[in-house]
Every structure is written in C-alpha cells, then in structure tokens.
Specification:
The structure is a single chain. This protein is an alpha+beta fold. The protein is 30% helix and 19% strand. The chain contains five helices and three strands. A three-stranded mixed β-sheet has the order 1-2-3. It is globular, with a radius of gyration of 19 Å.
Length: 169
C-alpha cells in the first residue's frame, strides 16, 4: 500500500515549517580564521502550544571559534502550531550559517572549502569534548574529488542572461 498526499494536503494536514528571521555575523582574520560567530533567530509558534526548533544549535558546534554568540527567541502568534517539514529546524539554521560562510569566502577571496577546513572543529566546541565519530573532513575531501571541486570556476556564478535565475557553481 502507498500513501501519497497532494501538495495542498501536505501543508494542511501535516503542518508547516515555521517562519523564522535569522541574522548571522562572522568575524575572521584576512587568512580566514574565524574570530567570532553570532547567530540570532526569531521563530514563530502558536499561542496554545509551544513549538521550538533547534535553529541555532548547529552553529554552536559547526566550526572552531573562540567567540560564539547564539540566541533564539520564540514568538507566540494566533496561528496553528508549526511542525517539522522536510527536516528539523537544524536545516534552516545550517543553511543560514553556511550561506554566511560562502559570503565570507567571497569577501576574503578564499576558496569556500578551504575556509571550512581551516575552521574545522576537531573536537566539539561545546565543552571541548571529543566527537564520538566525525567523518566531516573525509566527506569534504571525497565530495570535492568526486565532483571536481578544483576544476570549478573560483568566482561565484552570475545570474543566467536569458533566464534571470541564479546558478550555483
């Protein structure tokens, strides 16, 4: 047996991802060493039932950085209670952080992957404890090798002339 929901049913029957407003600030030396990370998020919930997400939690352990500030504020509204949609709240928080890292790499004229490797957290920054497992560095290297990272253009792609769509590089 297979159950399939229409797009309308998906959002009306099983919930929706709550709206969030996120601000990410990064400080770094000219060679890309992170000196500070700030990640603030405001999320919505309903007045009758609290729904929280872990939006800023990935930021706490994503990179080695001595100065870290995260804040998550929840705003109760007269709306139905949100739910996890296509993944937990870490997804939208990670997207915000990684987008900021890409922008930092462009501003510093550094390779985005090299920037991430330079700030790789060999131990969990929260409590400085060893990871039970951590294959992220190997994943970076294997991914870069498999899709030819070193052969890509160094500059970010520009919008397509005909379509007006942004194209990733």
């Amino acid at each position: 047996m297979k159950v399939a929901l229409t797009r309308s049913q998906m959002f009306n029957l099983v919930g929706y991802r709550p709206h969030s407003i996120q601000r990410v600030g990064l400080g770094a030396t000219p060679d890309g060493q992170l000196t500070g990370i700030t990640h603030e998020a405001v999320g919505q919930t309903s007045r009758h039932e609290e729904f929280t997400e872990r939006i800023v939690d990935p930021t706490k352990s994503a990179y080695q950085c001595a100065n870290l500030n995260t804040r998550y504020q929840l705003v109760p509204l007269d709306l139905s209670t949100p739910a996890w949609t296509r993944g937990p709240g870490e997804a939208s928080g990670s997207f915000a952080l990684e987008s900021a890292m890409d922008e930092l790499a462009v501003a510093l004229r550094l390779d985005p992957l090299a920037l991430r490797l330079k700030n790789f957290a060999a131990t969990d920054p929260v409590g400085d404890k060893p990871w039970s497992s951590n294959q992220l560095r190997a994943c970076y290297e294997r991914g870069a090798e498999r899709f030819g990272w070193n052969k890509r253009p160094a500059e970010p792609a520009l919008p397509g002339r005909a379509s007006g769509w942004w194209a990733g590089a």
